[in-house]
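Teaching note: in complex prediction, the entire set of molecules is handled at once rather than each chain in isolation. The prompt given to students was simply: 'Predict the structure of this complex.' The entities are:
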Amino acid sequence: MSSAYLWGLLFFSLHAMVPITLAAVGEVIGETAGLFNIGLEGIMLTAALTGALGATQGGWPLGLLVGLATGLLIGLIFGLISTYAKGDQLIVGIGVNLFALGFVAFGLTLLGSPGFYIVPAASRLPKIHTAVGNLSPLVLVAVILPFLVYWLLNYTQLGLKLKAVGEQPAAADVAGLRVNALRLGATACGAALAGLAGAYLSIDWLGSVTKEISAGRGFIALATVVFAGLNPLLTLLGGIIFGFFDSLATWVANIPGVKEAVPWQMISMLPYVVTLLVVAVIGRVHFPSALGKPYSRE
Amino acid sequence: MILGALLLLLYKFNPLLAYESLFAGGFGSLYGWAESLANATPLILTALTFAVGLRGGLFNIGAEGQVYVGALAAVATGLLPVPAALRLIVTLVLALAAGALWGLVPALLKMTRGVHEVISTIMLNWIAYFFAFYLIAHTLSSPLNGSRTIRIPPAARFGVILPGTDLNYGILVSILLALLFYFLLWRTTVGFELRAVGYNPRAAHYAGMDEHSIGHWAFLLGGVSAGLAGAVQLMGRPPSYAILSGIPQLLNLGFDGIGVAMIGRNHPLGILLAAVFFGGLEAGGRTMELVAGVPLEMVRVVEGLILIALAVPELGRFLTYLRHLNPLELLSRQRRRAD
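The expected output is the structure of the full assembly:
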């Protein structure tokens, strides 16, 4: 086994970690404040397409911005319905996912390509060149962000407020906090990160948009939040574990000999099987007591 | 609808022409109706899966994977030596059993390990997806044509009701199951307890109901229904009677079922109507694609928007208010006043 193979595996794992960690850290912010956004998958999918179009128009900075904005917009809609309108969060989330399935497929047909859209090479994010391979700058963002969010949630007044709103909204309300506004802000910021993750998929890592580009990563991110028990630092670890199995699938499939022995379909199942196993082993974790429930004054 | 029209305008399509062809294609002719009903056949079943889960307080979005597994079982039955007379029944039973088994996995994970069903069902959907790809390419692959599985034997196929269309007797399975679910939910103890647990788990617990066994029932019934959806879709629709590679006939049946269930208010009889509406959208979508040049996927955009809108409780109240405004009721109210 040559070291080039292993470096390849490591770099692929890091790149596969980025979307999961970004979306999971965002979801941690939202869930801390008490909103459970199951529409992460849909946000990623939508932002992958809008981000790619933005990048084609105005280069990668615009692409990333459009991805963030797409996430923010969907997050605001989701948040408004889930807070002020007291809608059912799970249903809105499922609606977002359905909408995204249609929107992206619809958008791709309009672009005239049968099922995929390739982002022009000039519009992709520039890589950091290292001695052993190219690294996306967003890998660094995904590594630093969990620490920032950890600090935000545990060592700032804002973090304390978000926790209060998630655990005891009634008490927080009496204490003068604006429950719905805080929740809306938290979930919108979280959704923006999921949007960034989507844009990363299309204009950086994979370089193209397909109908299945998110491939369940939004849900794997949700599983990662369970794994992390709402600790942002652990989303990094979770992201690396799932990223590793994701890349292992691709990596194993390219080794001569293994390719013939194990069918690729079985290897492709790996990340999902591992996610299921990890979540099953961890079992029940503590979540904010008011998670998923709309708040209304008695 | 209106949002959809704006989206169409944005992309420089003619929304009036699009909607006109959408409805003409779905409900404008006998052919349109037949296609709408044919499309509704599997959607009724996948919608029942989501509805029976939600009635029990569970978000079972695993219909998608259970459809694949049911369809695979239906095809695999073709390999077994079964007398021709029994073939139809055996195929259906094995498909529903396979769907039920796949549906029990998230139930066990939830009840024993506390794994949220949304996560486990999505993971199982993906596992079933790749499993289907594997079986299509290997065990069940057709020796004549590598891009599809072996065909369902003629003895296990549903006859076509209206020649020249896709409408087949499989729809009877869907309607029967919807009626059965209605009976189960509203006329049996298990159904009552299921709805009680979904409505107020704490009260149900204090009333001595066993949430775990009720949860298993909800997943089991859902799996049965979705497994049948996969089988019926293959056993009834000409011309292939086999799973094509890339599973185009099965893709998104489970997810569309969620929309159908929500619009049908998670009631088996409401689902029947909603499924025909969705089936019509799909059939009309094809006409829309031809006449107005709008891609078929537009239909799913509209579905998603409807679902998001339906989640707003105020809107739901508004709709029930509208329902009370129906002319017949107004008339009777006036009569009562006159008396």
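Point out the following to students. The CA atoms of residues 51 and 267 of chain B lie 7 Å apart. Chain B touches chain A through 48 residues (CB under 8 Å).
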